[in-house]
Amino acid sequence: MAAKKKGFKLQPLNDRVVIKREESESKTAGGIVLPDSAKDKPARGSVVCVGNGRLLDDGSRSQLQVSVGDRVVFSSYAGEAFKVDDEELLLMREDDILAVIED
């Protein structure tokens, strides 16, 4: 499923997924305010759009296990970061996603 952003359409290919990373915490549990340089990038986010699945040997496509809107956990160094309209997104393979968060 593609995502539309001001003037263009973003469609990941094959088993790739576009994720919007969640905001990092600005305070510690003890109430200390963290500067941007001390914050870890969170390894959680929401799926913005998904590709149409990996091409299998028989010519069919595999079904992705995640869908648009899923909250997911992924490896800290997974994916390629890019910006669209001042919004930072990640493009990664579905294999880099570790789990789906269910509320």
Task: Give structural notes.
The chain has strands at residues 3-5, 8-10, 16-21, 44-50, 71-74, 80-84, 87-93, 97-101. The protein has a six-stranded antiparallel beta sheet, with no helix packed on it. The mean pLDDT is 82. The protein is mainly β. The chain is built from no helices and eight strands. The chain has one domain: GroES chaperonin (10 Kd Chaperonin, Protein Cpn10, Chain O), CATH 2.30.33. The two termini are 23 Å apart. The radius of gyration is 15 Å and the shape is globular.
Tags for this model:
10 Kd Chaperonin, Protein Cpn10, Chain O; six-stranded antiparallel β-sheet; mainly beta; 0% helix; 103 residues
Please specify the SSE layout and strand pairing:
Blueprint: E1 3-5, E2 8-10, E3 16-21, E4 44-50, E5 71-74, E6 80-84, E7 87-93, E8 97-101
Antiparallel strand pairs: 1-2, 3-4, 3-7, 4-5, 5-8, 6-7
